[in-house]
Amino acid sequence: MEALEAALTDRVVCLPPVVLTELLSDPKTPDKVAGFLRRFPVLATTDGYWERAGELRRRVIASRRKARLADTLIVQSCLDHETPLIARGRDFRNFARVAPLKLVGQKD
Hints:
Elements: H1 2-9, H2 17-25, H3 31-38, H4 49-62, H5 69-80, E1 85-86, H6 92-96, E2 103-104
Parallel strand pairs: 1-2
Helix pairs in contact: 4-5
């Protein structure tokens, strides 16, 4: 992924807490990689985060689209910090339809 490589090169990568949790929970993640991941800044959860995430997920579901809980929490972290999301999964487009999410790395 060119977007991720560029962000890593420019040292402008930060992780939503859920992304770090998902990556570290994989039993196949080597210790060296886990140590590397722990060095990234993690986006803070701000007051009202859970309520905003619930509202965001409600809006996506109301539009009759899929809104996985982990994806919702990732997107809300990015929205709260006005941070673009580097993602390959098409499901994140569902959130961009109802919120000002900037997606990077998406192929049409």
